[in-house]
Amino acid sequence: MIRNTLIALAPALFCGACMQNTADKDAAMPEPVPPLGKSACSTEGLDSLTGQKGTPDLAAKALRMSGAKTVRWRKPGMAVTMDYRTDRLNIDITRDNMVTGFACG
Question: Model's pTM, two decimal places?
Fold first, then answer.
């Protein structure tokens, strides 16, 4: 009797082990959160550089004004890493190297 019950339940047990968990696939990935604490970078006062030609001299001036240690130029459609660095200044430029904005990280 027990043997017949086990034989009858075996397919259900095997099928249950093969089912996929779809809950993880439906969950949206959270946006990266910047680390807490004081950032080494600030974009205050950099608006005066918007609209100028992106040059090494402009980058040096922006670094001094922002307090950042590194700079990253970002052009439209350019692939960039998603890592957040508190000491990095991102300079957004057009394809013609005109500065359109600044962001820390």
Answer: 0.64
